[in-house]
Amino acid sequence: MSLDDINMLDRSAIIRLLAVAPAEELYRRADAVRHDTLGDDVHLRGLIEFSNICRNRCLYCGINRANKRVKRYRMSEEELLSTAQRAAGLGFQTIVLQSGEDMHFDQARMCRIIEQIKRLDVALTLSIGERDYDDYRAFREAGADRYLLRIETTDVDLYHRLNPGMSWQRRHECLLMIKELGYELGSGIMVGLPQQTVESIADDLLYLKGIGIDMAGIGPFIPHPETPLAHEQGGTLEQALRAMAVMRLLMPDINIPATTAMESLHPQGRIKALQAGANVVMPNVTEGEYRRLYELYPGKICVNDTPAHCRSCIGLKILSIGRTIGQGRGGHISRIEK
Ligand code: SAH
Hints:
alpha/beta, binds S-adenosyl-L-homocysteine
């Protein structure tokens, strides 16, 4: 099909773009939409992986609680705060706190952490999984600005097979609560899950548009050897880039990160993503051994690097493709700036 009429992207057109449209043409089109809507700025987020302890058993995830081989860690509040301080010192204006679902970080503790990090004058994103409404409300009142919670897939049966003990409906409701509380809402999916079809990926993208996300994280599923999905095939970079590019066509003004998992499949994965619709990168600012221990999937990049190294490395890559580093906090343009 031709890519001429992106405003008419219905489900069958999306499926064709995901499955058979010439990839390079699709990427160019998404890149042009990104350029025309958002310009050349790439916004950086400093990602802190503060605990790999998790109560869930997601079959794809290397830190799921059934994996007894991973050494577990959780940062102390002091460590977490000093990591955030150093990230702010490197110039990051958004800090992302990510972890397994570690209930040691209860409402009071999380609120204390949020309040302290907000004193650094940064935007704060949480990515700590499913909580109840009262927690989400308290975190928001404590100052959290954004929340990332991937729906992972909208194929409800597939979701339930992959996430034993969890409920797709519940996750969906969490997204609605987060939105209602006025967070900037990030969600997303994995591409290349076992038995996932292009039709279901098309439905995922339409779902993300339908709930009105501000940010979409789309990455390839990469099988982890210590999980039940060890011998599955996993997603390819092309599958993930296609889904990301179509997301850009569907939602021209949202923030879309070039995901770390893409770079784990290809040394230029994030650059390719930035040239196929992405406008955000989330360099890891976790320090020391923790980087290696937060192993969602194998082959994770930069596990032996320092935050300062990652910041300068990605900065140079961004400049080398003629893009600029975003100077503000880089929130969703429809909500904050302009
Ligand atoms: N506990 C938080 C953070 C999860 S980790 C939450 O539930 O939101 C962040 C994301 O990593 C997940 O949402 C999932 O999409 C992705 N992920 C997990 N395992 C993966 C794997 N094997 N390959 C690729 N991505 C993976």
